[in-house]
Amino acid sequence: MDNLMSEGLNLMVFGMGFVFVFLTLLVFATGFMSKLIAKVAPEAPPQPAKPNPAVVAPTASGGDELVAVMTAAVHQFRKG
């Protein structure tokens, strides 16, 4: 029984040690790749946001129709 317990503890220590070493290497490898990619392909400057015509508030020219379509869609969705 004592031999079986020591083998179990030995296996547990080696297994947890292997996982710890692997995860540590993975963290360093990921950091290294991140720095490498940042040097090779730097991020493009952000583009100014263009207003999306579908998101703009309804105007007097087509607003009533848009509100009617949206209301019908909501009622259809709530019906199931």
UniProtKB/TrEMBL annotation:
<comment type="subunit">
    <text>Heterotrimer of an alpha, a beta and a gamma subunit.</text>
</comment>
<comment type="similarity">
    <text>Belongs to the OadG family.</text>
</comment>
<comment type="function">
    <text>Catalyzes the decarboxylation of oxaloacetate coupled to Na(+) translocation.</text>
</comment>
<keyword id="KW-0813">Transport</keyword>
<keyword id="KW-0472">Membrane</keyword>
<keyword id="KW-0812">Transmembrane</keyword>
<dbReference type="Pfam" id="PF04277">
    <property type="entry name" value="OAD_gamma"/>
</dbReference>
<keyword id="KW-0406">Ion transport</keyword>
<keyword id="KW-0739">Sodium transport</keyword>
<keyword id="KW-1133">Transmembrane helix</keyword>
<feature type="transmembrane region" description="Helical">
    <location>
        <begin position="12"/>
        <end position="32"/>
    </location>
</feature>
<keyword id="KW-0915">Sodium</keyword>
<keyword id="KW-1003">Cell membrane</keyword>
<keyword id="KW-1278">Translocase</keyword>
<dbReference type="InterPro" id="IPR005899">
    <property type="entry name" value="Na_pump_deCOase"/>
</dbReference>
<dbReference type="InterPro" id="IPR023424">
    <property type="entry name" value="OadG"/>
</dbReference>
<protein>
    <recommendedName>
        <fullName>Probable oxaloacetate decarboxylase gamma chain</fullName>
        <ecNumber>7.2.4.2</ecNumber>
    </recommendedName>
</protein>
